[in-house]
Structure formats: C-alpha cells, structure tokens
Amino acid sequence: MARGPSLRILLNLALDSLLALAALPAAIWAAAPGAWPPAGWWGWALPGAALTLAAAGAPLRLAQQYWRFAGPRDLMAVAGAALGAALIFSVALRLAGAWSPPNEAFPLIHAAALGLLLSGARVASLLQASRRSGESSPDAQNVMLVGSPEGTDLFLRALSRDRHAHYRVTGILSLRARQAGRRVQGHPILGTVEEIEGVLDTLRAEGRLPGAIVLASGLPGPALEALLDAADRQGVPVRRAPAPTTLAPAGDAVGRRMELRPVSIEDLLDRPQVPLDREGMARLVQGRRVLVTGAGGTIGGELARQVAALGPATLTLLDHGEYVLYEIDLELREKHPEVSRRAVLADVRDEPRIRRLFEEIRPELVFHAAALKHVPMVENDPLEGLLTNALGTRIVADAARAVGTTAMVFISTDKAVNPTSVMGASKRLAEMYCQAFDREARVAHAGMRCITVRFGNVLGSTGSVVPLFRRQLERGGPLTVTHPDMRRYFMTVREAVGLVLQASVVGTTDPENMPPELADGGIFVLDMGEPVKIVDLARRMIRLAGLRPDEDVEIRFTGLRPGEKLFEELFHGKEAPRPTEYPGLLVATPRTADAALVGRAIDEIAGAARGGNPRAALAQLGRLVPEFEHAPDGTVATR
C-alpha cells in the first residue's frame, strides 16, 4: 500500500478513537447523570472504548472511509460500527465485573452517542468540503438546469466538487408538474419544461435571466426543440451537461473543471426509445455465425457493434474499403475481444469470391448493408450503382441460400419508392429480388428467410447532409441547401439499427406469430416520424453553434442535384402501410415478382453494365421498375 493512503487510514483511525473516547462519558452522563464511575475505572475503560470501536469497525472498513465523500452506505457502516462497539463494550464490562451504569438502556445510549459523533464528524467534513470546493469564481456564469431530480442532483454534486466552479445554478426546470415548488440541494424548481417561455419572461423582467440553460438529463426531441426555440427567442444558449459517467462521484474528480458541451443535432431527433425485444435479439444472434456486408459503413458498422454485443459464435466483417474495414475491426477488437471475429476485404460484385467465402464461413445470419448510396455519385456512374446495389445483392442472396443460411436481412432505402434516381431504382430492384426469395421460402415453409428493411436517412452517415453542414460551419459558411422545400426523413443510427434487429426477430418468428403481409414478401418499414425540412435543419445547426442564420452564416440554395427529389416517400401507392404490434415497425403490403424472372433481368442489366452500355442497362431497369421516372437533372415533382 502506498504511503499516502496508509497515513490517511491511520489518521482516520486516530480520529475515530478520539470520538470514541468522547462518546463514552457523554453516554454515561445521559444514561445515569448521578452515577459517575470511580477515577480508576477510566484508566482502562477509555482505551477499551477505542479498541472496541476499532474491532467493530474493521469488518465495515470504517477507517478506509473518505469523509469528504461520505454517503448513505458510509453512514450505515458508521451506525453498524457504533452499535457493535457499544455491545462489545457492555459485554466486556459484565465479564470483567467492573462498574457499569445502572441504566439497562446504557448499550443503546452508548451506541447512539457514538453514532452521532462519528456521523456528525463525517457530515461536517462533507459540508466543509462542499463549501470550499463549491465556491464560484468571480466570473461564474448563472445557469438554469433542466432535467429530472436525479439528473440535476448529480450535476449539482459534480459542480460542488469543482474547486472554482465556473457556473452558478440559479434555478431548475423539472420534467413533471408535481415537482414544481420543491428544491434540489437548496435550488428552487421554478416550473416545468413546458413552462419555460413564462419562466424566462419572468426572469428577464426581474433582471435574473440566466447566462445559459443546461440540460442535466435527456429530453425527447420535440420537447427539446420547443425549449431551444424559447431559449433562442430570449437569446439564452442551451448546453448539455457532461455524460453521467463523468459526473459520477469519485475521489479523483476533485478539482476537475466541468465542461459543458453544445446540444447536437442528433439530440433533437432523440425520440422516446421504443421497447425492443432484447431477449429475442439475443436468441437470434447468440451462438450463431453472423456476416455483415458493408461493415465499414455507418449502418453496417453499427450493425456489427450491436451484433457483437449479443454474443455471436463468429462475426465476419466484409467490406470493399480497406481503411473503414480496419477501423471497425480495430474498434470491435478493443470493445469485444471475446468475440471471434474476421475482417474480409472483398467486393460483393465478385461472385466467385463471395461464393467461396460463404462456403468457407457458412454464415447462419447475414446482414447485407453494402451499397452505393450517394444519389448524385451514382448518377455520375450509374453502371457502378447497378452492379453493386442490384447484382451485388443477388450474388449475396444466392450465396447465402446456397449454404443454408437461416436468414438474410437486406437494408433498403426510402429512395427505392417511386425512384427518380438510378440509386433508388437499383435498390428497388434488389428489394424485388429479396421479396421474391422470401415469398418462396414462406410458401414452401422451408429455405432462407430474406427480410427487407426500408428506412430514410441516418444522421451523420457518410455523405449525408449533417457532416457537410458541420464542415461548412467550421469554415464560417455558407451552408448549401439544394432547394427551400427539400424534406427528408431522419433517424439516429442507433435507433435505426435497433429496429433493424427487431425486424429481424419478427421476420424469423413462426408464421403464426408474424404479420400476415410478410407471408407474401412484405417489407418492414421503420417509423421515421415526420420529415424534416433541410433548410430548417441548417438553421437549427447554425443556432446550435451559437450563431444567427442569414446574419452570421449565410444559407445558399444551389438547386436540385441529379436524381434528387424534393420529397422522399416510405411507401409506394400500392404498398398500403400496416402497423405491427411492435412500436416503430410498419409493414408495406407486398408487390411481388418471380425470383427467377427478376434474377435473369438483373443478369441482363449486369451484362449491359459490364459491357459499358448504360442505355440498355437503364432501359431494362425501367421495364423491371415501371415507376422509375429518371430525373438526371433533379425533379421538383410533389407527392
């Protein structure tokens, strides 16, 4: 043991012994004021009181307590040690036949006196440390907390450990009305989150408007949006408290300066988490051989993370990009070293390579996320998009079925609905092939299930608008938006992948328990909420950066890009959406085709693509996907 801690423990032991010496005469006086023991009795009784406390406190590690951070468990240990020491001391008095107070309640009185002194010293030390470390610096900023009592309490405790706190809490907004009017660590609860407009108006009228609002716990996206709007009207910035793990009480946190962070755009889309069948996910993945294509991408990478946490027998990561594959493999090696893992550098369009790989690994569960998804890029090179998105999906599906894979999960996109881009049409063609495969398996009650999951944009994904806006903000703008009316569906990657796994569980259940639409190759569609106007997203990101749209940072409209639509859709007109019993999951009524027919058409398209004949490839694509209205210059058509 290090010298410093040893000295501290000895000091604690000495202080507790002194308190034990003081507790004994106090207890005798309280038990029998007129019956004072002879002078010789004290010579051995006082050391005995200290020794009995040391003996009773040793199993409870009383001397190892950190007084400045005393908590309920520490005080419980104090009570136990005090009671044990008093009982041992009373038994020793009786066995020794020496003088003892005539009051039969003396052991309890002794325990109470000892407990009060021991706990009082610790509480006094805690209060002193709190006063000393919680002193605000002269330029401390007044802040108002928003959150649950638990979240605000944790923040206030962390703030009290900052030796020169740069924030001074002046009030709290609670999440529920019944908490209004109460106090947390002496700080008043001024109202609820819904009442923020009125609270801020009152504080401004009184000249007590806070310098910032601090989110001490999570808020659903709509509530956070309303809070940001109210704060923005008053010119008050909103910041988020550090993660709870960094606020947890710890001895080495003393003196650490608390740093607030900006509210992120992802926070605004943080909808109430839907209940997921975690046990079903574990049953689906645990102990199975799992393969993820496109594992280096945003969706594929998150799939790999969540699958690894569920304990597969083996996890194969497949990607065509060397560096992104290296990154996800390294991350999983560090976070889940117990998972047997393999990183494979391969192209899903290379049929011989994929077939050999599947025959070697024989995956039981395949998540197919590999795709070219950037609409203008695929418009520039449409043949590459067709080969990867359509042919690559057929090759992976065929190879999986050939080796007896239980289920393949295909990640699709809202751009496959009424597509105006080659990227969207190629994904719709892949959907058709997977639907046909799945229908055959369900009709025959045998074979590989092919589950298709369709959803919109994922925040922060590679090539998406949010990272673009962030880069443009770092350069001071302008933020470029293609059209004032452009709208998109957005979801966080964590939520999207959680629902993909949920859909996988539902799609592999017994036919009696699944939605009837799935029997004919129905498509799972994630409930994306309401579409977001891209220009509103840009304005919000500018405000979150503490700047003013159109004043500090310009928003510039650049026009629709090749293949883009103003509005994306989640359902085709003939795919009437139907709810499922699982929150967040919908099912699109299927539009089915023959797998062999679609497969031959994909091969013809691939032949034309490899021959460098885009006209023939796109003509065949149009025949297979009749709703495909190619708009290489972008379209402003409404729904």
TrEMBL record:
Keyword hit for Transmembrane helix: yes
CDD domains, sorted: UDP_invert_4-6DH_SDR_e
Signal peptide boundaries: 1-22
Domain of life: Bacteria
InterPro entries: NAD(P)-bd_dom_sf, Polysac_CapD-like, Polysaccharide_Synthase-Rel
Pfam families according to UniProt: Polysacc_synt_2 (PF02719)
Domain Polysaccharide biosynthesis protein CapD-like, first and last residues per copy: 290-588
Keyword Membrane: yes
PANTHER family in alphabetical order: POLYSACCHARIDE BIOSYNTHESIS PROTEIN EPSC-RELATED, UDP-N-ACETYLGLUCOSAMINE 4,6-DEHYDRATASE
Protein name (database record): Polysaccharide biosynthesis protein
